[in-house]
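Example 3.2
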Amino acid sequence: MIPTAPLILMIDDQPEELRQLADLLRLDYRLTSADSGHGGLQRAQALQPALILLDLNLPDMDGLATCGLLKADPLTAQIPVIFLSADNSPERRVQGLTRGGVDYIGKPFLPDEVQARVRVHLHLHQRLSRAEQGQQTSSETPARNPDELLVQGAVQYIRDNLAHLPSVADVARKIGLSEKRLLALFREHLGLTVSGFISDERVRTGQRLLGDTAMSIHDIASTVGFQNAGNFATAFRERFGVTPLAYRQTARDAATPNL
């Protein structure tokens, strides 16, 4: 492992599984670990890892909630999260991906699969990050204050209801705020309007589902709240510069090992 290798955060409360992951990855990456959701959040905020491997079953809060908080925090929102879980049902996989995970690996895991998926998602994240740099102000550390809990609550509600999202005023009422106050909090903490965040989240969730599921583009468009696949394709191309079909093919090609 070289000193400049990407840092990977492993969040799992099973020491044996942490050891297996460490043995598998330590030659190519720097590693750090946490055995709880809250501990993982703190380490992610402090260390800014390049990627997070997250167990679904944790002692304090489950991996879905942990991932939701990671994605709601501007400090950690851009870090790709790969779920590892013994619960490999289709429902759980879709839940993990729609909460913000970029991938979902079942346990017991295959070492070659873990290495390949880690490598692929680090590469994809680097490419997407370069495309997004013009929209981010990551050089400044965002202020931390109690209002962030309200923002996180609103963000989580939006993510959980993308398919049938009510108006911005209704979103504000759901978390006990006026529409004006919610708009002010989003501008202050995320640098976006609520509508702008919703539009961005729909396209980014669609991007994750394109790369990590076999769902049709029509079903993905419906899942993230677009009226039809054409509207989704237009928004996706404006955001990423490629069509959904082209992105899916690129993701699949990157995941296919060279023989």
